[in-house]
From TrEMBL:
One of its GO terms (molecular function) is hydrolase activity. SUPFAM superfamilies: Metallo-dependent phosphatases. InterPro entries: Calcineurin-like_PHP (IPR004843), Metallo-depent_PP-like (IPR029052). This is Calcineurin-like phosphoesterase domain-containing protein. It comes from the Bacteria. It comes from Bombilactobacillus mellis. Residues 92-309 form the Calcineurin-like phosphoesterase domain. Pfam families: Metallophos (PF00149).
Amino acid sequence: MKIFSKIWSNLLLTTKHKNGLYQLKYLQQPYLLQVQKKQQILWPQQTGAMYYRLLPTERFRLVEVQPRFFVQQYLQEFAKRVSAVVQNDDLNFAVITDTHIKFADSHSYYGFNGLQHLTEFLLLPTLLPLDFVAHLGDVIDGSDNAITDQQFLRVVSRTFTQQSCPYFIAKGNHDDNDKYDEHTATHKPSFAQNTFFNALWQPMYQQDTLLKVSARWGVGYFDKDEVRVIFINTTDVPFQLDQQGRKKYDSKLVLAIRNGQIQEIIQILEKSVNKKIIVCGHANLVTRKGQNALEYNGKAMHDLFKAFNCGLKGRLVHQAKDTNFSVNVAFDFQNNHSGRVVAYLCGHRHLEDQFKIDGIQYVLLNVSALMGRNHALTTKYNYWWNRQKDQINEFSGYVVNLNRQNTLLRIFGYGAATPRRQFSI
């Protein structure tokens, strides 16, 4: 049987096949061979590296995503700098956002570098006393075909589950593959309704250390003493198709929080009395002027946090033109006397910013994916960084610290990020 399996694997690698996925053994490890018109990709199913070849060449190339030596050295120095300031009994967690993983060997923009940045980021739990790690969304760029991006999501999931630190992955507006769909002839969805959930959230929610009301909405939280960190879903959009089979809502463009998720967040808040709370999501809820920053219910969510901070009882009502996003929920925070939502951390905007609205400190984190100067979508912030492949500013990531007295929030950045931001809360 082993001999037959080896012969079958060799045949798959040396003969032409229709587009699709084929199981085989490569270097004595289980792989999926993805066959496309112009290239083939070898996806590891347990451990092992990724390989690809551009047809008609015969040679497979290694996809370089393992931590680089110079990055390991740099992160060791970064960890020493952070260790000198933080304490083990502080709240400490690491955050990366907007990796925009794409199947491209790009030296100036999105590509394999996003996955490499993630593997390097996950060195931090071995260097610092972290309570958990988090990815704040846009795991993939969502511009590759469905098979490729589904495999990327599975690789990312294994990358997180194979390390020992608790983790959370928020959903970003690129993670439903709508960017790919808009460039197809039919514009029909390449991802099913539960593709992201099955690949990333289902294994994530199996962690004993991750607290939750349900696994339905992409919400969860971690506790450390009197501090709670809540993750919410700003890409909470219904999967509905029109008569042509096209999605009614483009997740890339419609950022939203729906009634059901808000009800679940209320349940968590009602059990969070007298706690200091940090909320994390992909996109900011409001602008620095306090206006709605999502298509639906960003300001409503912010107002709910404000009501919690004030210990109020009432009903949050918002009648949207699209009833899928109307809100009508009751809340009772009268038992809360000292609990506060003190900060909201997010990515999405591909820059750094900070502002305080109604006593809640908003902190925006920079994109991890490489954004070189010579690209139209590169933000002014990343243009200023002049980010370069194989340089320290190629990547970015953060360690978040809340001191034992719960009075000082510190954000330590590495790579294309501010080295230290500090906020009194």
